[in-house]
Amino acid sequence: MAAGAELVFLVDLLAIFAVYVIVNLSLNLEFGYTGIPNFGKVLAVAAGAFVAASVPGRIFAGMAGIEGDYITENVLVVSQVNAWLADNAGIGIGVFLLTLAVAAGAGALLGIASSYPVARLRGDYLAITLLAFGEGIRIIGNNYEPLVGGTLGVQVPDPLAFLPGEARFAAASLLLAAGAIAVYVYSERLVRSPLGRMLRAIRDDETAAGALGKDPRGARVRIIMISAAIAAIGGALYAFYVGSTIAFAYDRASWTFWPFLMILIGGLANNKGVLVGTFAFVLIRKLITFYKESFEGIVPFDVIWLDFLLLGAVLLAILLYRPQGIMVEKPTHTVRLGEKRTPLQRLLDIFR
After folding, report:
1. Which stretches does DSSP call E strand in the chain?
2. Phi and psi angles of residue 341, each rounded to the nearest 5 degrees, phi first
3. What tens digit of pLDDT does each residue of 53-106 get?
4. Are residues 142 and 150 in contact, defined by beta-carbon separation less than 8 angstroms?
5. Which of 46, 126, 137, 216 has the most neighbouring CB atoms within 10 Å?
């Protein structure tokens, strides 16, 4: 691998790792800490990506006075928008942050909508119902062209258009990494709070938690809303990073089953385990993808299926021989309240 290719590989690895960390931490809150088998995780991720693909481009085009239909003339409109953003960096960053807020709001609303079955169903029935919710948004995206261009997709404006090509690539990856760190810190503080302890109690014995005066239904609704908002931010960041959105790219394999595999590898109800499992998965899959052509003629099947087969085998091995994951769940230290501690000490408490 040449030096330039190595750098591109590492920068892209950081970006994809950061996006999946955001999504997986939100799934760990639902499944690992609360016991909600959210097989419709793609719902919130796709919602965030669709917001990024449909909202900022229209705002920028209106502000810049660019004419043309945003869907049918998308390539032309977005190229003009990017040229305008190169001279209006402050506006671009402002609308980018606004888009993340709108994406989080859209995810939270969808979380509230999907919380109806979460509050009433359990086990396989709940998993299948949430799976149907996730399929619904992909079907809408494929068939309702004004949203994200249907099966052709759309390009997404680049808020970092003022940076040169290589610098833009690195800055985008660092921005995603900063987002992942922020979500990790937030998730750790949440699970160390009274709400986090209640989530574990509900997961382990809902009846006992209810007998102690807790509200299992309200806690489930709250956590799925929070998790959906976080996952939607991850989807929006991914859309901005790749620079385009197409509905069928947000399938249940990439944005539901793979996240489940990553948190199972790392260890449920353990955010550090999520980091380990996500990094292992993303690294292995990128290496397989990068060197896939080397396996042609060696494996007795089309190499396009190599990563699916190997990662499926990893999942079976984890479930058979290490069902608790690489890092097992441990008692969580409570966030220290009322003590005079420096910001650095509080941050170190989170990573204990």
Report:
1. 154-155, 244-245
2. -130, 145
3. 999 999 999 999 998 999 999 999 999 999 999 999 999 999 999 999 999 999
4. yes
5. 46
> Locate tokens 């397989």: which residue?
288
Q: Quick one: CA dihedral 20, 185, 93, 53, positive or negative?
A: positive
Which residues are 244's β-sheet partners?
155
Q: How far apart are CA 287 and CA 276, in angstroms?
A: 16
Write the single-letter amino acid at 345: Q
> Which residues fall within 8 angstroms of residue 114, CB to CB, at 6 or more apart?
40, 43, 130, 133, 224, 228
Per-residue pLDDT reduced to its tens digit, 264-321: 999 999 999 999 999 999 998 888 887 777 777 777 777 777 778 888 888 888 888 8
Identity at 78, one-letter amino acid code: V
Pairwise CA distance, residues 108 & 102, whole Å: 10
Paired strand residues for 154: 245
Dihedral angle, C-alpha 121, 125, 130, 131, nearest 10 °: 180
CA–CA dist 244, 54 (Å, integer): 11
Picking from 323, 37, 325, 346, the residue whose alpha carbon sits closest to that of residue 192 is 346
What's CA 13's distance to the chain center, in Å? Answer: 15
DSSP 332: P
Q: How far is residue 280's CA from residue 170's CA, in Å, rounded to a whole number?
A: 21
Quick one: DSSP state of residue 293? G
Q: Report the first-to-last Cα separation within the chain, whole angstroms.
A: 37
